[in-house]
Amino acid sequence: QFMIAEPFRIKMVERIKKTTKEERQQWLKQARYNAFQIKAENVYIDCITDSGTSAMSSEQWSALMLGDESYAGSKSFYKLEASVQDIFGMPFVQPTHQGRAADYIMAKLYAKEGKYAIGNMHFDTFRGNAEVLGALAVDYVVDNGKDTASPPHPFKGNIDLGKMQSLIDEKGAENISVVIITVTCNNNGGQPVSMQNIREVSNLAKRHNIPVVIDAARLAENAYFIQQREEGYKHKSIKEITREMFSYCETATMSSKKDGLVNIGGLFVSRNEEVFIMAQQLAIVHEGFITYGGLSGRDLEALAVGLQEGVDEQYLEYRINQVKYLGDLLKEKGVPIIEPTGGHGVYVDGRRFFPHIPQKEFPSQRLVVALYEEAGVRAVELGACAFGSKDKETGEDIYPDIEAMRIAISRRVYTNSHINVIANALGEIYKNRDQYKGMKLVYEGPITSLRHFTAGFELY
Ligand code: F0G
């Protein structure tokens, strides 16, 4: 399989521990078969998330030393502001301590009680904040984006314009308070949204005076896919593409822990001054003064540099192709995945992997357990446990369309040899797939949508 070598060399290493299968079985039992409950030091290759796990560059580490820790008017803030304006093409920048804090501000300003918030697939943190405020969050991703077995399509993160139009016709535009486009779409495979779709969604919304916002956690990866896959963008730079993406929206939030290539931070960015004035007020109450937003000056410095490194084309080519390399190795071994591979990880289809395990017995969670047990590799379930819900009247379980195990790949952290380890382990499990049985959920916390973090399981 084809892979692109790393466009960096390694100056400092972090040692990781190889463990035995017997040890891992013990730790799994102690964790009640929940990957979130395993100690990180007992994980060999950690693919539970790509968030906050990036390796910083020597330029970022040296920028840390320049951090201006002034409470108000920090020099570091103005560097960050300029870097953000350069990539987003929007004037108003408020840092926050991480993405969900920006989501909270976004929800406060754009979600309205009893009104709809249309998304391709809402990420948990905006959805949670919007629902607490009484908004009705609906996922209108295109149909092939909901089907983990659908044939490859370049933009499975797109919003279904037909569904959006129907909701406008049925409920009236005044009952839709916002459209939020998440790039890339995390919940169904890190699948990108095309420029054409962003433009068309924006035009439709504009005709009805509905504001459009973007959840931009993985903006650079989305821009790279547009450059590679969409007609007319081959010769555009990543920055030209990101600026065009944001030209169609009023406001964007970002978890800087992804494409910002830092370990903590978030952003609220807008072109609407009235909205921004309110956002600053909320930031002061919840985050910190407007020029630091809950981050230290050195964090602002690292992010100012990281954002620019995140849109570098050599980096993105390597990044996207490392994920694809894992996908290609898995496909070669027959392992069923969401195709094409997305930006930040490979999503293995739990139902097709373990066709004999019904969704109520958590096939993807079973696969997470098997992968850790066999190889010390930690992935995350995005299926019946994480996305499951309960009928409000009957309390009966509702199962999600997506049933997958996400292998999230941290940025600039693991080598292609680590990728081989992951692929070989999954290939072995796949060969023996008939021997695995399902799991039983024996503990869940009071809030169903958060249950995957603390759930306890038993093996059948
Ligand atoms: N939006 C998207 C699309 C995300 O993927 C995340 C986080 C957030 C917002 C929230 O940002 O963590 O900085 O508060 N996603 C992580 C993940 C946790 O594993 O996918 P945050």
What do these coordinates show?
The protein has helices at 21-30, 58-64, 75-88, 99-110, 124-132, 143-146, 161-171, 195-207, 219-229, 238-247, 273-286, 297-310, 313-332, 350-353, 363-375, 416-431, and strands at 45-46, 92-96, 116-119, 136-139, 176-182, 212-215, 251-255, 266-270, 345-349, 377-378, 380-382, 389-390, 397-398, 404-408, 439-443, 456-459. The protein is an alpha/beta fold and 460 residues long. The chain folds into 2 domains: 21-50 and 313-459, Aspartate Aminotransferase, domain 1; 58-310, Type I PLP-dependent aspartate aminotransferase-like (Major domain) (Aspartate Aminotransferase, domain 2). The longest helix has 20 residues, at 313-332. The protein is globular and about 60 Å long. The model has no long low-confidence stretch (mean pLDDT 97). Bound molecules: ligand F0G. Residues 49, 51, 98-100, 103, 123, 125, 182, 186, 215, 217, 255, 257, 266 line the site of ligand F0G.
Summarize the structure.
The protein has helices spanning 21-30, 58-64, 75-88, 99-110, 124-132, 143-146, 161-171, 195-207, 219-229, 238-247, 273-286, 297-310, 313-332, 350-353, 363-375, 416-431, and strands at residues 45-46, 92-96, 116-119, 136-139, 176-182, 212-215, 251-255, 266-270, 345-349, 377-378, 380-382, 389-390, 397-398, 404-408, 439-443, 456-459. The two termini are 37 Å apart. By secondary structure, the chain is of the alpha/beta class.
